[in-house]
Amino acid sequence: MKLLRDTWLVFGRYLGLLVRNPAWVVIGVVQPLLYLLLFAPLLQPLANMRGFPSGGAYNVFVPVLLVQLGMFGAAGVGFSLISELRMGVIERLRVTPVSRVALLLGRAMRDMLSILVQSLILILLSLPFGLSINPVGVVVVLALIALIGLLTASVAYAVALWLRSEDSYAPLIFTSTLPILLTSGVLLPLGLAPQWLRNIASLNPLSYAVDAARAVFLADLGNPSVVKGVVIMAVLSVIAIVIGARAFSQAAA
Questions:
Q1: pLDDT band, residue 131 (cuts 50/70/90)
Q2: pLDDT category, 93, cuts 50, 70, 90?
């Protein structure tokens, strides 16, 4: 009960900061929107190629934009935490009875909410381009994106607490996310990739989330990849929460 109360208090504080500066929600949508406008049309000629999933280019590409949004949207949250470390906020938390798990979850919930709002905006903007999805599919995909955001944010906070420097955090977090995204089939379906790249992708947990999101957008909710992707992201999120909470305990102990 105390954990829930503490988490809600931390979430309320950081949600207030987000509400006072909602521009970041709009800014977070700009990059995937540019992909939607400038890259997705290039996929139209590929839609009939062997290895390209059936269902339309936008139903194949928009779900991975959401996955990308979930990952990149949460990857940069460590910058604000490093700023708080520098200002002594974490130091002052030493004397509070707030749960260290709540310090992580409250922030991560704010990040998840921001990503979900951005995802809804992107889905709505994609409808005029020919995207089609049912309400149940939207709920499933948003749940999947929320798990990706929780996983990435938890890891990002842990890394920020370990490094304590933007100069170290920025190259590490953004360089590490690039190969993860490229081997997950975000830009192009892995059905078009050579076998050696598919073998590498099979070791990438995010590729299963991409498969799950695509299956949902292609009206194949019964596909086993949907359950597999959600379960993998859920398990990894729990592990990331444990790692992130331990980092907060060490930083604020």
A1: confident
A2: low
Rounded to an integer, what distance in angstroms lies between the CA atom of residue 164 and that of residue 161? 5
Specify burial of residue 211 (Cβ count, 10 A radius: 0-12, 13-18, 19+): buried
**Location of structure tokens 């990438």:** 204
User: What confidence tens digit (pLDDT) does each residue in 181-235 have?
Assistant: 878 877 666 666 677 777 887 888 888 998 898 888 888 888 898 999 999 999 9
Half-sphere exposure of 155 (CA within 13 A, CB side): 20
Six-digit token pair at 41? 């049309």
CA distances in angstroms from 253 to 38, 40, 56, 85, listed in the order given: 48, 48, 53, 13
What are the tens digits of pLDDT across the range 153-196?
A: 999 999 998 988 888 898 888 888 888 887 887 766 666 667 77
What is the pTM (predicted TM-score) of this model?
0.87
Burial of 217 (0-12, 13-18, 19+ CB in 10 A): buried
What is the rounded distance in angstroms from the CA atom of residue 84 to the CA atom of residue 109?
18
Q: How far apart are CA 26 and CA 121, in angstroms?
A: 9
- Block residue for tokens 């059905």: 191
Alpha carbon 218 to its chain centroid, in Å, reads 21
pLDDT at 48: 63
Question: pLDDT at position 44, please?
Answer: 64
Q: What's at 183, amino acid-wise?
A: T
Separation CA 220–CA 132 (nearest Å) = 13
